Amino acid sequence: MRQNFAAQLSLFCRKIIVIVNVPIANYDPYVVNPTIFSYFLWLIKLGKILIVTRHMTELSKLSRLVVRGSWFALAAIAVWFTVPMVAHAENLDRGTVQAENRGLGAVHRPNATHFRSAPPSGSTGPVGSPLIYWGDQLIQTPVVYVIWYGNWNSTDGSDTPAGQQIIRDFLNSIGGSPYFDINQTYSTNGYTVTGNVVFGGEFYDAGSSGTTLSDASITAIVNHALISGTSTNKALPYNPNGVYFVLTSAANINYSGFCSSFCGWHTSDPYGANNLRYAFVGNSKKCLSSCAIQTTKSPNNNPGVDGMISVIAHELEETVTDPENGYWDMNGNENGDKCAWTFGTTYLNAAGAYYNVTLGSRQYLIQRNIGLSKNGNDYCVMSRSQIP
Ligand SMILES: [Zn+2]
């Protein structure tokens, strides 16, 4: 999804790996030793899946296609036999875009209107396909910068100064929390992930890239914020440990893919001898049924921004543990992906909103994250102490 060809290729190959991860147990009738004939049949089908893949930017759609079509399952097996090493190698390229969405599969899509029970807690057992460390950098203590893009002083009740304060409070309190300490378990190879987070500063951009955005716009917006300050809106410093979040307002910003394919993503571009790590998260108010788990009530009375908080947590923990080529599993999933839209134990507050963590003076409902256990398994948890 980036302009960069290597990144596109890398993302493409991660999608292939996603296809490979067909739940083969569901396709037992088709799991047979390939004969020469069926092998070529699969390659024909593989050609089709490649065409489909070129036109898909949405992992969930792909996986739904895979689940629906037995031919796709066969093609996936063919991929497994033919190109896994190629896909693996291409994943070593940097610059992959990790997109988040709630998944459009029937199982994982709570109906917004009828969703009145607690948010999904998720399994407490070991998570399949463990994360693998691929040897590149980890961010020990991220310094988070926020770029408020669009109109964050609107009258929609969500893109507001009060909404911004929810995000600031979150970023100022997540560091050192039992939740973010989960990431300490990723420390390796001389990198000590501290579990701390520094909120480094913020920048306002009312619209340097217009109101209709593309992926390239997000890159431009980040680079703009690094060089285009004024005395009252200072440019952000470049920080090799920085994670730059472009947070778009709901009211007046359109970004193709946001809401239909993803709720957020993170990536990395070379920056001199270093890397520029940045992420996009849009205000979930744009599409609460796709990018928020609670659509009417929320812990801070702002379902759009409360929805963003969970996506921000997701992107931040992924960027810290996989800025370029850190931890991801054989399906191309990072830690946040593997626990997405599961929340562990949740509590109903007096106002009727669910939350699962209290940080500072606020309650939030944020997704779980993978904790790496000394027993060799991965678990989705809400705090380091919950890791078996
Ligand atoms: Zn992700």
Description:
It is globular, with a radius of gyration of 21 Å. It has 388 residues and is α/β, with parallel strands linked by helices. The protein folds into two domains: 86 residues, no CATH class; 256 residues, Collagenase (Catalytic Domain). Helices cover 30% and strands 18% of the residues. α3 crosses α4 and α6 runs parallel beside α9. The N terminus is likely disordered. Bound molecules: zinc ion.
Residue windows where pLDDT falls under 50 for at least 5 positions: 1-9, 11-73, 76-98, 101-115
* Counted beta strands: 16
Shape: globular
Major sheet description: 6 strands, mixed
CATH topology of the largest domain: Collagenase (Catalytic Domain)
Average pLDDT score: 79
- Fraction of residues in helices? 25-40%
Which percent range describes the beta-strand content?
A: 15-25%
Rg, Å, rounded: 21 Å
Quaternary form:
single chain
Give a list of the ligands: zinc ion
Topology as a string of helices (H) and strands (E):
HHHHHEEEHEEHEEEEHHEHEEEEEE
CATH class of the largest domain: Alpha Beta
Number of helices: 10
Structural class: alpha/beta
Distance between the termini: 37 Å
Total domains: 2
CATH architecture of the largest domain: 3-Layer(aba) Sandwich
**Which strand order does the major sheet show?**
1-8-9-6-3-4
